[in-house]
Design goal:
By secondary structure, the chain is mainly α. It folds into 2 domains: about 40 residues, no CATH class; about 80 residues, 434 Repressor (Amino-terminal Domain). About 55% of the residues lie in helices and about 10% in strands. It contains 7 helices and 2 strands; from the N terminus they run ββααααααα. The protein is elongated, with a radius of gyration of 20 Å.
């Protein structure tokens, strides 16, 4: 992208902040520049956040009925999915999916809960319940 083509339309999801982008200057060198974003990016980001909010709401309902663990709710509430929680916690994805089941989550040792707690930025006591 050329330096003069960097989008500056504005993006409400950036909340007034700018982000760093790479572009080519007049001499053909790759340089960094600030961008306020563009409308298409805002639409896609808003849609993705809406999907995560809906997943968190559904997970909270399932957890309240005993069909899912609180971990599933907190994962979506913190804007994560199984792959990202797996990366940040250090557990294999199949183990994260297993821990989303109430029976397996309830049996987790303190050291495993501590890893999830750190990955989600929550105290263990909060992680074990619903808001």
């Amino acid at each position: 992208m050329d330096l003069d083509a960097v989008p500056q339309e504005g993006n409400a999801t950036l909340d007034g902040h700018a982000k760093l982008m790479y572009a080519r200057d007049a001499q053909g060198r790759v340089v960094t520049t600030r961008s306020r974003g563009w409308e298409a990016e805002e639409i896609v980001t808003s849609h993705a956040v809406d999907v995560l909010v809906e997943q968190a709401r559904d997970a909270k309902e399932r957890a309240a009925r005993g069909l899912a663990s609180p971990l599933e709710y907190w994962m979506y509430e913190r804007r994560m999915d199984v792959a990202l929680l797996s990366q940040t916690s250090g557990f294999w994805q199949w183990r994260v999916r297993r821990h989303l089941k109430p029976k397996h989550f309830a049996a987790l040792p303190a050291k495993h809960l501590a890893r999830y707690s750190e990955a989600l930025g929550l105290p263990v006591s909060t992680l074990q319940g619903l808001p």
